Amino acid sequence: MSTWMQNAEEASQDSEKRRLSGRIHILGLGNVGTFVAHSLASRLSPPPTTLLLHNPDLHRSWLARKKCLAINSNGLDDVKTGFDVDVLDGGTWHSFPYQEKEDAAEINGEPMSLDHETEESLTESEQDGDRIECLIVAVKAPVTAMALDSVKHRLTPDSTVLLLQNGMGVIDEINEKVFPDPQTRPHYMQGIVSHGLARRKEPFQIAHTGIGTTILGPAMSATSTPSESEADWAPSTKYLLRTLTLTPSLVAVAETPSSLMLYQLEKLAMNSIINPLTAVMNCKNGDLLYNYSFTRVMRLLLLEISSVICALPELQGIPGIESRFSPERLRWMVTQLASKTAENHSSMLQDVLSGKTTEIEYLNGYIVRRGEKDLGLKCVVNYMMKHLVLSKQQNSKQREAGAIPIDIL
């Protein structure tokens, strides 16, 4: 075989290796993850989708729900099925492809033994070590690094990871803890979901309470600035972005890395006011609107937040930053959001009451870190607010740990 033909054959093989399968994996099936998976299944031509379940108990719940995701809108359930599932057990992922005939029988109500099927499938299923091309991560910021660590061996430098969560600074943490070698890192995307979503009592079911938007784009962190040109994006990034923006239910739009970061910072500013104040004071979002003392604390927080954002080195040269992130405009945005969600309890307050780790380190904590590390600014009000939430969180955990069980005869 001639050298030219051999090179052509090798090039063809490399092209085959790089060809995308189109499969999308989803890690985290809370409100956002369930909504995205359901939206993909609602397309006329759904992409192959794999749900990543992080323990066998969650798999048992999946079987009990007859392998369906449901979204309730206007009182009606829209049920979708057809998902492949990977289950993590003992550090190993087990693959369960969707089988249309058998699963249709289960949906139609034919009897099945859940415990038997779970045990049998985990022991007899194939171990899934296939690489992941497109991964959507919808877990909360504090557990993102741990969640990604379980699948890092399946990610390559050609993979794209889309992060859908509140707060900022997660990518820097992932790079430090999960992908310290820049040569092995996947490509990152981030997104902001503003749809109204509420969890229902049963797992894998949510309520869609209000239509919003989904803003997506390649990520820009403090330590890496990707190209603004789409021509330079990875094939998996282009595919994932195109697929999601063409999914009607998501109402998704694509933005450049710098534009996406501006939207993220706006949401960060609003969440850094409403979430910690409601968590510390144990009140609804609307209670912040008519309290003079709340408005004084809000003003001090926003002065620091505005100063840090306007001085971030990665935003220098972008026109209109000072007016877009002025304390007055940020205060107006906070007031609008608090008014719109007046009867809601913030996610941070719910986390504190349930003894869960909050996202405070990725909200006010992010402002404190960027201010001190990159700008030499001491954000004392945000620092105090961060520790008030941390102390509230710690007290909640201590009360739960110290609770004495009482048997009622």
From TrEMBL:
Transmembrane segments: none annotated. GO terms for biological process: pantothenate biosynthetic process. GO terms for molecular function: 2-dehydropantoate 2-reductase activity; NADP binding. Coiled coil: none annotated. Residues 260-390 form the Ketopantoate reductase C-terminal domain. This is 2-dehydropantoate 2-reductase. Its EC number is 1.1.1.169. Residues 24-218 form the Ketopantoate reductase N-terminal domain. Belongs to the ketopantoate reductase family.
